[in-house]
Amino acid sequence: MQTSDPFIQIDNVRRAFENSIALDGVSVSFERGAFSVLLGPSGCGKSTLLRLIAGLDQPTAGVIWVEGKDVTALPPSGRDLSMVFQSYALFPHLSVAQNILFGLTVRRTAKADMSRRLAVVAQMMGLSAFLDRKPAQLSGGQQQRVALARAVISERPICLMDEPLSNLDAKLRAEMRVELRALQQKLRLTVIYVTHDQVEAMTMADKIIVMNAGRVDQVGTPEQIYTRPASTFTAGFIGTPPMALFDPVDLAGGPVPQVRQPHVIGLRPEDIHLSHSGPTARLTGVEYLGADRLISAQAGQTAFIMRTPASAPLPAPKFRFGWLAASASVFDATTGKRLPQYDFPTPSLAQKDTTHETA
Amino acid sequence: MVKREWIYAWALLLPAFVFLITFTHLPAVQTLINSLYTTPKGRRAAMFTGLGNYQQMLSDPVFLKAMVNSGIYALVTILASILLALAMALLVHRSFRGVGLMRMSFFTPTVLPLIAVANIWLFFYAPGFGLIDQIRVFFGLASANYAGQPDTALYAVAAVTIWKEAGFFMIFFLAALQTVPETLREAAAIEGCSRWTFFRRVTLPLIMPTTLFVSVNAVINAFRLVDHVFVMTKGGPDNASMLLLYYIFETGFRYWDTAYAGALTMVLIAILAAVGIGQFFLADKRVHYR
Ligand SMILES: Nc1ncnc2c1ncn2[C@@H]1O[C@H](COP(=O)(O)OP(=O)(O)OP(=O)(O)O)[C@@H](O)[C@H]1O
Ligand SMILES: [Mg+2]
Fold it and tell me: Above 70 in pLDDT, residue A26?
């Protein structure tokens, strides 16, 4: 079972390059046996943070702890972790078996032990039939499995993954998501997973760390991140389409919260519905998605998207819309931070453990 | 339709063919034919001798000496220049301050004409005031004439070739090293792989195609690069630095024994062809091509 002691702790880590600051004072912790996802747009410093944890790069400032031990200065080999690279980093001249066993070979593991572990891992990954092939003779998904097998066979407790699924097609990616998650649970791995794909983050994570421009924007379960984004950045990043951010003036007539400071109000597309009363909007476009329809509209200065069932009638060119007061998020207009004092208490969320969800 | 394309193809190839045939293939065939005849002298016309010229070689001490020398010269220059090139490439593969300058200085010998290089080295070797002798004298050793002593002349000549070639080969190794993805190094580092193990188990196999290419070039150069022999030793002293190609030149253009020179040329071509083909077939199995 998971315990909630911080297994890996990042303490105020900063990484500056010659002409950019990739990480700017990042503090975050990762629990043992949890699947943690670093999520953020391209260039926000996810890979940099992962490489610092791996020891492939050194922080400009800050400390990295693993099990209460300062590992900041340790080389990668001293940190007892494995890593799956986005490009898989398979050795092109070695066979699948040699690739998987590479680490064990350089660490001079006993022959019998190696072949036993290889058999187990190859079986688990469905690679038994390909052990003699070269990586170039495998499909993308199979190569991905080899990279994963190489990490798994090391039997190290921590596994770092940098966008391991981004080179696969959509269907395979969906399959691998399930497999990865199952594998992590079965082996009780502590996984730190980098992605900019929110679907991957939502479906696999115990905990999501949303990053933006070298800083941690929010840490929470997928549900918390989705329903209670901590800032306008996360609100606009999570969700397809993301949360619409309204100038309160454009919502006049609806159940707007009484806020005395300059603020914006965020509404999820599925929380907006057609209504008899409330603010008016002008229809600007319709997108048919099968089960749903995405209605693009303009209310005053704010363009927004609302999700309606495909079976529902199309709104008129000018229509009124409403929402449940509890579903609105309120953000400070200047800092973009959430103003939690205007949150409605939601029983399903309030008592939830903040770090993990599934077990 | 098809016919027209063929005409186009031939028309495009024709200029190249004309030059290749006139200046490469015809002379080669002519040389082969000449090598089967005696050299015409004065009123005595060339006579067919079959393998007579080739038999003469077996009892020609200079030819035998040249063969042995060429063998040693090839072995030394090939091995040393490849190892040196690889070492230099590994050194300047990383990035550090002044790496550009270092790469350039390693490459400089390549762009100098071999004759000029030979003159520089003549100064290094010059007994009494030469660079090497000055160092020797500084350490209290006796003066030496590397290019002029029978036991060192061949190696003195070989050193120049190595110095000239290594920088050139380094460029190829450098390019090859740069195609080895950095993530492979990182993946290996996480597994606790030492730099030497990584080099042996990953880098070396991955740059094998380049090594093959470079070694073929080194072999060809070992028989081809003799310009500096003209400047430095003229094959001497006492044929100590006599190389096959230089001997061909002497026979053909100093003694005008063109038939014998032709036969010697055939031997050279045979050696190069055998080595080249052998290398490709032998190495093909051990080379990893992506
Ligand atoms: N070696 C480097 N030298 C200079 N700048 C770098 C280096 N590596 C990363 N950076 C910069 O640091 C920032 C963060 O890079 P990082 O690779 O961590 O982004 P990322 O979140 O992984 O993005 P992506 O999703 O595109 O992989 C970027 O602005 C990048 O330009
Ligand atoms: Mg990245």
Answer: yes
